[in-house]
Each structure stands twice: as C-alpha cells, then as structure tokens.
Write a structure and sequence with these properties.
Blueprint lengths: L17 H8 L4 E4 L4 E3 H17 L5 E4 L5 H13 L3 E4 L6 H12 L13 E7 L7 E6 H15 L7 E3 L6 H13 L3 E3 L5 H10 L4 E4 L1 H14 L9 E4 L9 H7 L4 E8 L3 E7 L8 E5 L4 E5 L8 E6 L6 E2 L3 H6 L5 E3 L2 E3 L2 E5 L5 E6 L4 E3 L2 E3 L1 H9 L4 E11 L3 E10 L9 H11 L8 E4 L13 H12 L1 H4 L9 E2 L2
Parallel strand pairs: 1-8, 3-4, 4-5, 7-8, 7-9, 9-10, 10-11, 24-25
Antiparallel strand pairs: 1-2, 5-6, 6-16, 11-12, 12-13, 13-20, 14-15, 15-19, 17-18, 19-20, 21-22, 23-24, 25-26
Helix pairs in contact: 1-2, 2-3, 7-8
Length: about 500
C-alpha cells in the first residue's frame, strides 16, 4: 500500500475515508483511468466532495440509485459521493429493461429515508444478483464488511494486492466494483474499461502500471487467445492475478502462466453475500471440486451432510458478511435461493465438504443456478420470459460446460401447437434480450415434443438435463438409443 497507514486506524473503517488521505499525501498520483480519461487522487476527491455537498444540500434520501447509463468513471464518482455524504449507493445495471429499473427504484424508495449516524456498520452499498422471481435481488453491505475484505486481501496476497490494479468490468458487477475500490483504498490506483477488450487489457498490463489484475475466467481465456493471435511476448510486469466469478478452467493454467510468467495466480471463492470464503494457488493438478482453504478471518461449518466427506450445506462465519436483502422477510423466507442465516452463520445454499487437508470442496448450488461469464443466472427467470413468447408452451433452461463461459446457457422448449409461425434461434435470442440482460439469452435451442413431467405434473428439469446430456454425447449420436430426440432450432 502506498505510504500505507496502520490497518487499525479508524480512517480505514469506512470504504471512502482513505480517499481524502491519498488526495493529501499523493494528490498528483493517478487514482483512476479508463484509457481516455484520468483523474488524480486530488481531482477525484474534489469531484466526489462537490457532489457529496450537492446531495446534502438537496436533502437526498438515505439510499440513492446510481445512474447505470453514465460512464464508468462518472458512476464511481457518484458512488463515492453518495457514500461520502453518509448515504447508501445502489448500483443500477445498465442492461436492466426500463420496467426492471423502475421496479428497483420503487423498492429502494421504500427503504427508510432517515439518515443515521455514519459508522462502520452503516450501509454503504446495495448490489444486485439475479432473483428467482424474475427481478434482480438486492443485497446490502455495510462499510466494515468491505474494509475487512480489503484488509484480508492485502494481508493474504501481500504487497502486490496493494499495487495498481486493472479491474476491467462494470461497477454494477460487485467483483469489479470491489477491485476498483480496493485500488482507491490502498492508494495505488485503478485502471478500468468501459467495455472489456482483451487486447487493451494486455496493453495495460504490459505498461506495468497495474501489477495486479482481477478478472473472471472468460476474460482470461480471451486474453490468452488474443495474445496467441497477436504473438504477444510474455508480460512480466504482472505480479498478481485474482480469479473469481466462476470456476477457473484449470487445464489452461499453463497457458496463463506462460503469458504472465512472474504472476502469482490466485483462485478465490465467495459470494455477493459473503465476500471472500476460500482461496488457492491455481494448480492444474488440483481436483476440480477443490476451491481452497478458508481465508484467515473465515470459519466454515458443513451441515446436514449425509455422511462424513459427502456434501452438506456450507455455512460461513466472518466479519465480511452482508446485512440483508431489499426484499421483505416473507419474500426472503419464500425464496429458495436466498441465503440462510443462523445467528452469526450464513449459507448461500452451496453444497460441499472439507477434505483431509482442510480444503473446501464445492459440489454445487443447492438450487438450479447457472454461472456463466462470471455472472449468476437463475433458469426460472429465463423460462418465464421464453414461455411468454407466443410460440412456446414450456421451457427448461440448462447449463452445459463451456471452455470460455464456464457454463453455456441453452434452452429446451415445447412449441405451442396454436402458433402459426416458425421458431428461429435469432428471434428467440432477440426476444430474451428485450426483457433481460444479454448474457442470459440462450446460445442454443432445442425442441422436445415428448415433454417429461414429474409426478406432480411439473416439468422434469432433471430428466430434460439427462436427455440433453445424452443428445450431446458422441456415444448417443452413434447409437440406436430409444431416448426421445431433441430437434435443434436454427
């Protein structure tokens, strides 16, 4: 950390507080850059304070929705201004349809409008994950949950975690917002991108201003492939790569190491509600289910496992846990995807176990959630959109392994016999993108006429997943199996 102050200093207990310190002691240093615009710590602090004063004079509510359509730098200025004024900033996703944005604004408007005394346990941030109801699910964090995350990150990964960082993603994605704020909190600065570009990310890393990189696996794969196409020499300036958002494709670790020969490559596991849980050095020989050992300030308890070593619900206890959801208590209790609280313990409904070496092994989510491109997707949300199409009677959204995305989103549908038109994949994808973020649109579609149902008359999603697996396997393609066939939608 540049001219690092003591970790126990109260100055570091608020996410925004170090900004004024760095503006004072290294005001001419670049705080943030997007390749076109740069702001020093002094300039950033001045812009933040100006907007914070305006919010106070306007008697803005205690929670403010940050404009997701603004530039990334402007969003970060607004975010810091909101929290510097003692308020809580909710980060809108620019991909939200207008109706979703208005619903989220209404939810936020129902929160208490009264400000309380600013403390380390005051809420500062509301992020959003995909919700099982078809609407984003807001989660609220207090200052200490993220300042403790900053501390454990630097304490665990060393001085390189307190160096200049490249965080090439949107601030509406909590992972990249964390990277941006980490660079400002440590005083080392951050480089961001309005839209991810593998070639520009490689150029930034080559320049040496950002020895640290935080990324999702799909970004790293694109960077590897871009480097091969351009015959880029190994980049020795990069010292730390932190990977999260999805499981890293470990079979590509050697390629990543060859591109960044001096970098320490870290995989870490966590959730929006928990921050860090476990971490490990990237190791091609590690079992796929291993996600690492707990961070130093994290305790893990495996509950309800059928036998020792079998998966159970993963509960964690740490100072980095979230506060609550925006939804009502009744809605949360009815949501099978919501985190479970038990006193100081929390579970995001992931299943796993601890192995003999004390490493956490992740089996999967208790529900049907799919992680693609570093983001979480709930099939129920997309199924509702698909079945709203006049040509679709039923839908089952599935995830299939994909080297780039982690999981590729696909859909199996039953066509509506009353529909006079013909289903086309491009039209269905456009239909989905009109109602949801683009990454949620399925990459492939199949029709299944013999639709399987459970005993209660509901769609048998597990049965469809098995049919899809058989359909995609070479063994099935070469056999005379009686398994009902799936017909591709082109």
């Amino acid at each position: 950390m540049a001219d690092r102050f003591n970790n126990s200093d109260a100055l570091t207990d608020l996410v925004h507080a170090p900004l004024a310190h760095w503006a004072s002691v290294r005001g001419d240093a670049v705080a943030i850059s997007d390749g076109n615009r740069s702001l020093t710590f002094a300039e950033l602090n001045a812009a933040v304070q100006q907007q914070a004063v305006a919010l106070t004079q306007a008697q803005a509510p205690a929670t403010v929705l940050v404009d997701g359509s603004a530039t990334s730098i402007q969003q970060l200025i607004e975010f810091l201004a909101v929290i510097s004024s003692g308020r809580c900033a909710a980060m809108a996703d620019p991909d939200w349809p207008a109706a979703v944005r208005e619903t989220m604004r209404e939810q936020i408007g129902q929160l208490s409008s009264a400000q309380r005394e600013l403390q380390s346990t005051s809420p500062f941030y509301i992020g959003f994950t995909s919700g099982s109801t078809g609407l984003p699910k807001g989660f609220r964090r207090h200052h200490r949950s993220w300042t403790e995350s900053f501390r454990i990150c630097v304490d665990t990964f060393g001085p390189d975690a307190a160096s200049g960082i490249l965080s090439p993603g949107r601030s509406s994605h909590s992972l990249f917002l964390f990277g941006m704020l980490l660079g400002l909190w440590t005083g080392a600065g951050v480089v961001i991108q309005e839209q991810f570009s593998a070639s520009r990310a490689l150029d930034t890393l080559r320049q040496g201003r950002t020895p640290s990189l935080i990324a999702v696996p799909s970004q790293l794969i694109l960077m590897i492939e871009s480097a091969v196409r351009q015959a880029i020499a190994p980049i020795e300036a990069t010292r730390l790569i932190m990977i999260s958002g999805a499981r890293w494709a470990r079979h590509r670790t050697a390629e990543l190491q060859a591109l960044f020969p001096r970098a320490r490559i870290i995989e870490f596991y966590g959730a929006s509600e928990t921050s860090f849980i476990a971490w490990m050095e990237a190791d091609v020989s590690a079992p796929l289910e291993v996600v690492g050992r707990p961070f130093g300030n994290v305790e893990i308890d495996i509950r309800d496992a059928e036998a020792p070593g079998s998966p159970g619900l993963i509960f964690v206890r740490s100072p980095m846990l979230f506060m609550d959801y925006l939804a009502t208590k009744t809605d949360v209790m009815a949501d099978a995807t919501a985190a479970i609280r038990d006193g100081d313990w929390l579970s995001v409904r992931d299943m796993g176990h601890l192995d003999a070496q004390g490493r956490l092994c992740l089996a999967g989510r208790q529900n049907r959630m799919i992680t693609t491109q570093g983001k979480n997707l709930f099939p129920e949300e997309l199924e509702s959109v698909l079945t709203a199409h006049p040509g679709i009677a039923k839908a089952s959204v599935q995830g299939v392994p994909d080297a780039l995305r982690g999981m590729k989103v696909v859909a199996v549908v039953q066509s509506d016999p009353a529909y006079a038109g013909e289903l086309h994949a491009a039209e269905l994808s456009a239909w989905c993108r009109e109602n949801l973020e683009a990454y949620k649109a399925p990459k492939r579609y199949w029709v299944c006429d013999d639709w399987p149902l459970t005993a209660s008359g509901k769609t048998d999603h597990a049965g469809l997943a098995l049919r899809l697996q058989n359909h995609l396997s070479d063994k099935h393609k070469l056999s005379n199996s009686n398994t009902p066939c799936l017909r591709p939608i082109l």
